[in-house]
């Protein structure tokens, strides 16, 4: 059985690369904010000082992740139910 060949338009390629680029920039930006900013010496930039001296990030990370995961699992279950019964 031969599968039909799919064609990709220029617009689809653009949006695909766009979303991958935005996701990569966001990921590396947040990794810098959480991990790499603590390794640099103090600077005069108040944003960098705030990221370096943040003590409460990890205290709130796990408690706030639990409701987000719960909602994501619910939406995943809901989408699978809608797909199954459509």
Automatic annotation (TrEMBL):
Q: Name one Pfam family in it.
A: PIG-Y
**Entry's transmembrane regions:** 14-35, 56-77
Keyword presence, Transmembrane helix = yes
The answer to whether UniProt assigns keyword Transmembrane to this entry is: yes
Could you list this entry's UniProt keywords, alphabetically sorted: Membrane, Transmembrane, Transmembrane helix
Instruction: Write down what this protein is called.
Output: Phosphatidylinositol N-acetylglucosaminyltransferase subunit Y
Source organism (scientific name): Brassica cretica
């Amino acid at each position: 059985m031969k599968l039909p060949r799919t064609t990709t338009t220029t617009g689809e390629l653009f949006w695909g690369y766009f979303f991958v680029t935005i996701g990569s920039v966001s990921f590396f930006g947040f990794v810098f904010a959480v991990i790499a900013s603590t390794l640099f010496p103090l600077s005069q930039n108040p944003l960098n000082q705030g990221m370096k001296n943040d003590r409460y990030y990890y205290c709130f990370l796990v408690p706030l992740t639990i409701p987000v995961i719960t909602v994501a699992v619910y939406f995943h279950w809901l989408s699978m139910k809608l797909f199954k019964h459509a």
